[in-house]
UniProtKB/TrEMBL annotation:
The lineage of its organism: Eukaryota, Metazoa, Porifera, Demospongiae, Heteroscleromorpha. It comes from Geodia barretti (Barrett's horny sponge). Belongs to the GcvT family. The keyword Transferase applies. It comes from the Eukaryota. The keyword rRNA-binding does not apply. This is Aminomethyltransferase. Gene3D superfamilies: Aminomethyltransferase beta-barrel domains (2.40.30.110), Aminomethyltransferase fragment (4.10.1250.10), Probable tRNA modification gtpase trme, domain 1 (3.30.1360.120). Residues 2-76 form the GCVT N-terminal domain. PANTHER family: AMINOMETHYLTRANSFERASE, AMINOMETHYLTRANSFERASE, MITOCHONDRIAL. Residues 96-173 form the Aminomethyltransferase C-terminal domain.
Amino acid sequence: MLAHTGYTGEDGFEAIVAAEDAAHIWMTLVDEGAASCGLGARDVLRLEAGLLLHGNDMSVDTNPYEAGVGRFVRPDRRGYVAREALLRARDEGVERSLVGFVMTGRGIARHGYNIMSEGREIGEVTSGSPSPLLDRNIGLGYVPADYSAEGTPLQIDIRGRPVDAEVTSLPFYIRS
């Protein structure tokens, strides 16, 4: 099966093939000039596109409205799991929000680093990486909703040193 989908924000395809056919298909693609890349490249591309990584940026414990993906749920339908909690989050808002940020100081934010404001811990980085395309270091993380507005100054605790960052809109990059 060939699906015109992808997890990088770029135009692409995903091939779902039988395991015994995978090596032959891969070698045929390489022989025809396809270039390979690793998971690190895929992770940078998905981060630039603002795509979330389950287990990092969201989990079964994350409210979809906190993660900015509430538009994909329909809690008003009967029988919806966690219906009341989702309706409350949709109607009353959430306490924390996933935000994108750019590093304005020198440093790379990584998963698990603390997000600070005025010397106080307020959140946690979920993903971070240098962006070759944007020539900046970028990241995602959860902060209290009051700190989620674009332009809000933050600091990322990088090995005990606060490094300046700023909340920005997502996605970081849109393929034209």
